[in-house]
Write a structure and sequence with these properties.
Layout lengths: L5 E5 L7 E2 L15 E7 L2 E7 H13 L1 E4 L5 H4 L11 E4 L4 E4 L2 E2 L1 H14 L3 H11 L5 E7 L3 E6 L6 H12 L3 E6 L2 E6 L4 H12 L3 E5 L6 H6 L2 E4 L4 H4 L7 E3 L5 H16 L2
Helix pairs in contact: 1-9
Length: 272
C-alpha cells in the first residue's frame, strides 16, 4: 500500500513567518533563537522564522503537500522565499487565487468571482463606505487587493474599537466579514475563503489527511475544514479564546509558535 497523502495548508503571517514587531522575543538576548530572513521588501528584511523552523519546513515539504495559504496578494506572496521545496500549490488573496506552479488557475479564479458577484454586495459599495466612515486621523492607507477585497492600514493605538464593531455589523448585512490583524483592517466577502481553495487542492492531490494552522478570524474556516488544526497563543482567534473539537490552542506566542506549529504538522503527518 502507498503512504497516505497529507495536505498541510498553513497561514503565513504571524503563523509561520513573523515581522520584527511580531517576533515576541521575550527571552534574554543571549538565549534568543537564530533567525532566518524569508522576505525582503524595498531592500529591507521584513519577515523571519527561526532557523530550526526553516529546517522543519524543509522536512515537511519533502513528506507532505505543503500549501502556503494567505490573504496576501500574489505579488506580496511572491516576495516570500520559504525554505524547502517550492510548493506546487499556493492559496493567495484569501482563496481568490489558487496558484499551480506559481501561476493562477484561471478556472478557479473565474468560479470565485462569479460566486462573489451573486452572493454579496459589490466591492465598490464597501470601498465607498470605508472612505466615508474611516477617519483620516488614524487611517494611513486605503488598499484594494486583487479587485477582490479591501483593507485599511491604520494607527492601531488611535483606532476606535466602536468603529470596528460598527463596520463588522454593516459588513455582515452585506455578505462581508471584517478582520483586524495588527495594523490592518480587512473587509472580505464571506464566500472568499481559504477553506474552499484548500478543499480544491485536496481534491487534486488526492489527500487523505488535511492539517491547517492560522491565527486570525480569516483562518477560522480553514481550521474547521481541516482534519486537525492548530492556532498560536496570539492573534484574533487566541484573543477570542476561539476553539473547536479538532483544534489545538498552543501556548506559544510569536516566532516560537511558528516553530511549534511545524513540529505539530510533522508529528501528525508521519504518525509519530
Amino acid at each position: 500500500m502507498s503512504a497516505p497523502t497529507v495536505l498541510v495548508a498553513s497561514d503565513l503571517d504571524r503563523t509561520l513567518i513573523y515581522s520584527s514587531a511580531a517576533l515576541a522575543l521575550t527571552m534574554p538576548d543571549a538565549r534568543a533563537p537564530r533567525l532566518l530572513c524569508v522576505e525582503v521588501h524595498e531592500s529591507k528584511p521584513l519577515s523571519f522564522m527561526t532557523e530550526t523552523a526553516a529546517a522543519l519546513l524543509t522536512e515537511l515539504g519533502d513528506t507532505a503537500v505543503f500549501v502556503p495559504t494567505t490573504t496576501r496578494t500574489r505579488k506580496q506572496y511572491q516576495r516570500i522565499n520559504l525554505p524547502g521545496p517550492a510548493p506546487k500549490y499556493a492559496i493567495c488573496a484569501n482563496g481568490g487565487h489558487l496558484l499551480v506552479d506559481g501561476v493562477s488557475d484561471h478556472d478557479w479564479h473565474a468560479s470565485v468571482t462569479e460566486r462573489l458577484a451573486s452572493e454579496c454586495a459589490p466591492l465598490a459599495e464597501v470601498r465607498e463606505h470605508l472612505a466615508a466612515t474611516a477617519d483620516p486621523a488614524w487611517v494611513r492607507k486605503h488598499r484594494v487587493a486583487e479587485d477582490l477585497f479591501a483593507y485599511l492600514v491604520v494607527e492601531r493605538e488611535l483606532l476606535p474599537e466602536e468603529w470596528v464593531k460598527e463596520l463588522a455589523v454593516w459588513a455582515e448585512n452585506r455578505g462581508w466579514t471584517v478582520s483586524l490583524q495588527g495594523r490592518k483592517i480587512y473587509a472580505v466577502p464571506k464566500p472568499l475563503t481559504k477553506s474552499a481553495a484548500m478543499r480544491e487542492v485536496g481534491r487534486r492531490s488526492g489527500a487523505t489527511l488535511s492539517l491547517a494552522a492560522g491565527d486570525s478570524l480569516l483562518d477560522a474556516d480553514l481550521l474547521l475544514a481541516a482534519d486537525l488544526g492548530w492556532r498560536p497563543g496570539h492573534g484574533e482567534l487566541a484573543d477570542a479564546d476561539w476553539t473547536a473539537p479538532a483544534i489545538t490552542a498552543l501556548p506559544e506566542r510569536g516566532v516560537a509558535a511558528g516553530e511549534r506549529i511545524l513540529r505539530e504538522f510533522l508529528t501528525a503527518s508521519d504518525g509519530r
